[in-house]
Structures are given as C-alpha cells and as structure tokens.
Design goal:
CATH architecture of the largest domain: 3-Layer(aba) Sandwich
Number of strands: 14
Distance between the termini: 11 Å
Structural class: alpha/beta
Number of domains: 2
Helix content: 40-55%
CATH class of the largest domain: Alpha Beta
Oligomer: single chain
Strand order of the largest sheet: 3-2-1-4-5-6-7
CATH topology of the largest domain: Rossmann fold
Radius of gyration: 20 Å
Order of helices and strands: EHEHEHEHEHEHEHEHEEEHEHEHEHH
Length: 354
C-alpha cells in the first residue's frame, strides 16, 4: 500500500469539494491502496476529525513539502482547480503543488477534475507543461478532455471519468413511490456569491417565482452549499439561506421532489440519489454536467434575467407531470456516471501498484 497526499479545495466548507474528498478517501480505503493519507486543507483539524486522516495546512510550505517528500503519490483530486475565472493565483498554487511533486520524482495523478476556463496565456502554457509530465489524468467531462488535448497535453495520457462523488455509491439511489416523492419539497441550491456580481437579479427572481408557482402544492427549501452564499430578493431583502454540511446537503437533496441547482454538486448529489433536477447557471461545468447527464439546463446569460424563473417553472411542471419517467432517466444517468467514475480510476490503481 502507498502513502498518498491529496490536494484540492478542501477545508473551506464547500459542500461539493468536501463530498469529493470524502468519496476519494473512501475509494482509497475500499480499494486497499493507501496505508497513509494526508490531506492538504485550509482547516486541517476539521478535515482530520471528519475523515480520520492526517492533514496539514495547505499554505504551510514546510509541512506541505514534508508531506510530499514522504509520500508515494500526490493525488490532485476533484473540483475545478486549474482555472483562472476566480483568480490566476489559485491555478498557480495547484500547478505549483503538482510541479513540486514531479520534481521530487513522486508519482503524480490528476483525478476527477474539470479543467478551465483558462484565459491567461501563462496559466495555459504552464498547464500544458505541468500536466504533460504527470503519471495519470482522469477528467470528469468530455469538454475538459478536449480542452487539454487542444492545448497540447498528450491525448494518450487522458482518460474520461466522472465526478468523484459518483465513486461513493452508498447510500444508493432513492427508492420510493413516485406519487409520494413528487409531493416532497422543491429544493433550490443557490449560486456561489461572487464579489463582482452581488446584485445579480436572476437568483432572487428565480426564488420568488418558484415560491409563487408552488405555494399551494409543496414546500420550497432554499439551501447554500458554502457559508456566505446570499441572494438578493426582488423586494431588496437579502436572503441568507442556511449553509449545509455534506451530510445535511445529502439528506436535503434526498428528501426533495425536484432539485433546482445553481451549483454543480447540487446536481451531482441529486443524480446520485435519483432525484430529478434542473441545472441553472452559465458556468461551463454546470453546462457540461447537464448535457452529460441529460438534464434540463438554463443559461442565465442566454436569456433575460426575468425569463430564468419562467423557464425553470416550465421545466418543473414538465417533470412533475411525468415524474416516473423523469426519475427513471436520472437513475440511469446515475448508473452510467458511477460506472464511468470507477473506470476513470482503474488506471490509477495500476499507477499506485507499479
């Protein structure tokens, strides 16, 4: 068995990244591949306590380098780590960790990631150089596979996998009568709060529109997947939905009739549970997952802000009118993506054992 260091956006309370980490740790243990796991985290104490792993602070250079020196494999796992939409600095950090492990002659793998968008020519070139030198690459969507191929990473190194959350099949697809499930709450996962767009109108209009549409038939539950995510409603009030932890998020999604998610992992959790869902967002990772899983997708940038709510309500009505068929389609997508996630990790087992 190997000593594995895991790098990613961990310790910040983001539900999606924490579920990816949990699934990855579970897979390593289930596969009996890791004798020791060290996670680079912004909150090492909480990460260690939650997953029973060793953890060091991701910004402590001495501890990070010590972990890399003593590992057999650096695993850069899950998320959209190499992108400069949020900042160039974050991409340089993750590429720097990969480059350091490569220079130390450790085995290096990228697993379950989505790549891009990358606007900086420098980051694009560094991505091509660094990823061409790693031992294994498994990506979560076809768009990321094509992107790396287009910037010059050898296609022979790249495999198509799926989001790492699909590695963890337990507790499995929800089993209940459609007539019962369709009466459960509609759950909205709000978009991430970005400094550049605090007054974006469509999320508030969406929540107001859904509340009006379903008020006599079922409950509306609004949840955030990271602390600080807020939505400005039509009357000017700021909605601060409770931020779920991974366990709460999974439970809320499983108790939904339909999920309307403006975050990728709201969709991932819904598909993993077999819950019909609607994707809302202009982020390429939301678009790619919706197309991959066969979900209805609304791009707010391609329509007026007031029309987003109308389109979501139309899709919601269509799902509820044919709930059995919609739920079956989502369950089939779950089976396909779960199989693909494990296939994407098969080669990593060979790297660890070589």
């Amino acid at each position: 068995m190997s000593r594995v260091v895991i790098s990613g956006y961990y310790g910040y309370g983001n539900v999606g990244d924490e579920i990816v980490l949990e699934s990855l740790v579970h897979w390593l243990r289930e596969s009996n591949l890791a004798s020791d796991i060290v996670v680079l985290s912004a909150d090492p104490y909480r990460t260690s306590a939650r997953l029973d792993v060793r953890s060091v602070h991701r910004y402590n250079p001495f501890r990070v380098m010590t972990a890399l020196v003593h590992c057999d494999l650096l695993l850069s796992g899950g998320g959209s780590l190499i992108q400069d939409l949020t900042s160039v600095r974050s991409s340089l950090y993750y590429l720097g960790i990969l480059a350091a492990a490569t220079l130390l002659r450790r085995k290096v793998a990228v697993a379950g990631q989505g790549i891009g968008p990358i606007r900086s020519g420098l980051v694009r070139k560094l991505t091509q150089i660094v990823l061409s030198g790693v031992d294994y690459i498994s990506l979560r969507d076809q768009g990321s596979v094509e992107y790396l191929s287009n910037i010059g990473v050898p296609q022979s190194q790249i495999r198509l996998g799926a989001d790492l959350a699909f590695l963890q099949s337990s507790p499995g697809v929800r089993e209940c009568e459609p007539a019962v499930a369709k009466r459960w709450p509609v759950v909205v996962v709000v978009p991430p709060r970005r400094r550049a767009e605090p007054h974006l109108a469509w999320p508030g209009l969406l929540i107001d529109g859904l509340a009006t549409s379903i008020r006599r038939e079922r409950q509306l539950t609004v949840v955030a997947f990271q602390p600080g995510d807020t939505v400005q409603l039509r009357d000017g009030q700021v909605l601060r939905p409770p931020a779920a932890d991974p366990v709460q998020a999974d439970r809320i999604i499983r108790g939904a009739s339909v999920v309307v998610s403006c975050r990728l992992h709201g969709l991932v959790l819904a598909v993993r549970a077999g819950v019909p869902c609607i994707a809302v967002g202009s982020d390429p990772k939301i678009r790619d997952f919706a197309l991959d899983a066969g979900l209805p997708w609304i791009d707010p940038d391609a329509t007026t802000q007031s029309a987003v709510s109308d389109r979501v309500c139309d899709h919601l009505s269509a799902i509820l009118n044919d709930y059995s068929a919609e739920a079956k389609a989502v369950r089939l997508a779950c089976l396909r993506l779960s199989a693909r996630a494990r296939e994407g990790m098969d080669g990593l087992s060979s790297v660890l054992q070589s």
